[in-house]
């Protein structure tokens, strides 16, 4: 029932910016932490940034100072503002959310389908 839909990916030149959005939908949805992962060709999927329900943030070392994660609980949406983009940021970016849905007493991990971010040099 829970779905995460990403948007905002695309092609950008090095030094440019992109803003990714991920909207969660579902019945009686209550979201704990949300985050962004990415996976480049030939590489493992890595955690880029997370934000807790209390607003605590964590970032991959290589994106600190360039990326900012935020959330709008009223819209069940998480954002990733990406500035000063580098070619090595090129990857498919996946939204993730830990959430309760319906009357479930246990939280579950949910994933979006991914959005392509390509940074040209």
Based on DSSP secondary structure assignment, what is the total number of beta strands?
Answer: 11
Specify the structural class. mainly beta
Order of helices and strands: EEEEEEEEEEE
> In what range is the share of β-strand residues?
over 45%
Average per-residue pLDDT, rounded, comes to: 95
Uncertain ranges: none
Number of helices: 0
Helix content: under 10%
User: Termini separation (Å)?
Assistant: 40 Å
Q: How large is the radius of gyration?
A: 14 Å
Textual characterization of the structure:
This protein is an all-beta fold and 121 residues long. Helices cover 0% and strands 56% of the residues. The chain is built from no helices and 11 strands. It starts with a strand and ends with a strand.
Write the layout of secondary structure elements.
Blueprint: E1 3-7, E2 10-13, E3 18-25, E4 30-39, E5 46-51, E6 57-59, E7 67-72, E8 77-82, E9 91-100, E10 108-111, E11 115-120
Parallel strand pairs: 2-11
Antiparallel strand pairs: 1-3, 3-8, 4-5, 4-9, 5-6, 7-8, 9-10, 9-11
For this entry, give a set of tags.
single chain, 121 residues, mainly beta, 7-stranded mixed beta sheet, 4-stranded antiparallel beta sheet, 11 strands
Question: In a nutshell, what does this entry contain?
Answer:
The chain is mainly beta.
């Amino acid at each position: 029932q829970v779905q995460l839909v990403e948007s905002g990916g695309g092609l950008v030149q090095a030094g440019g910016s992109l803003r990714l959005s991920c909207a969660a939908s579902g019945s009686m949805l209550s979201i704990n932490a949300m985050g962004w992962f990415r996976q480049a060709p030939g590489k493992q999927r890595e955690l880029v940034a997370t934000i807790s329900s209390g607003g605590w943030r964590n970032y991959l070392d290589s994106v600190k100072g360039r990326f900012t994660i935020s959330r709008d609980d009223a819209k069940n949406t998480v954002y990733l503002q990406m500035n000063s983009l580098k070619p090595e940021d090129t990857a498919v970016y996946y939204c993730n959310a830990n959430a309760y849905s319906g009357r479930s007493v246990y939280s579950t991990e949910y994933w979006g389908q991914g959005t392509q971010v390509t940074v040209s040099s």
